[in-house]
Amino acid sequence: MTLLEGRVAVVTGAAQGIGFEMARKFASEGASVVLGDMHAENVKAAAGKLEADGFQAVAVACDVTDPDQMQNLGKTALDAFGAMDVWVNNAGITRDATLRKMSLADFRSVIDVHLQGAWLGTQIASIAMREAGKGSIVNISSISGKVGMVGQTNYSAAKAGMVGLTKAAAKEVAHLGVRVNAIQPGVVNTDMIRALRADIIEAKLKEVPMGRGAEPEEIANVALFLASDLSSYMTGTVLEVTGGRHI
């Protein structure tokens, strides 16, 4: 018996990076997975990779800021697989700039994708899960939401907001059998990090006691823990997966 045998998991921002690794990890542990991402062709290709490996996967083009598209994402899980046991709010963007130079549009877009998107996902998932009397929601925050990062007033605010959302929602739905937890990754070896200047990456890694960035699979492993019954008595928690950075 695998950890998610017979369960259904939804992951947003699942076309690549951490999101795809979480979908793959869940599938490898027995879950049927629904991959949501705003990039239709990319998410279709990602689901195809999982299907080629023998897993059950469905792709949905989804803008997490759009309530109707998010409702459709949830409906797809229920229609395709008959349940919704796990929901991960992972979709995100960056629009970095100093406070002086950041536009209001760039502030709002990051807040909308991360925080509004996570709120919509949490609302939709919790309503479905309460009917079943069980479920696990995982919000992917960031260590930036704990300490704040220069040039990321939008991103840090959004990620801190996701922590508050996680804790408040956890209190509301715990008695219904629904758990809500969050993960705060640090430096992760994804395209987002690799796009930074070499000196910036080096400076970030100097802050990590373990001396390296995380692999996406290492974040996915923690998401699996929170999605599974291994964490059955945990809700409203925030797990830092940072290699010791900012402890």
Structure description:
By secondary structure, the chain is of the alpha/beta class. It has one domain: 3-Layer(aba) Sandwich (Rossmann fold), CATH 3.40.50. 48% of the residues lie in helices and 15% in strands. It is built from nine helices and seven strands, in the order E-H-E-H-E-H-E-H-E-H-H-E-H-H-H-E. A seven-stranded parallel beta sheet has the order 3-2-1-4-5-6-7, with helices on both faces. Strand 4, helix 4 and strand 5 form a beta-alpha-beta unit. Helix 1 packs across helix 9 and helix 3 packs parallel to helix 4. The chain is globular, with a radius of gyration of 17 Å. The N and C termini lie far apart (36 Å). The relative contact order is 0.14.
Summary of the model, kept short:
The protein is built from nine helices and seven strands, in the order βαβαβαβαβααβαααβ.
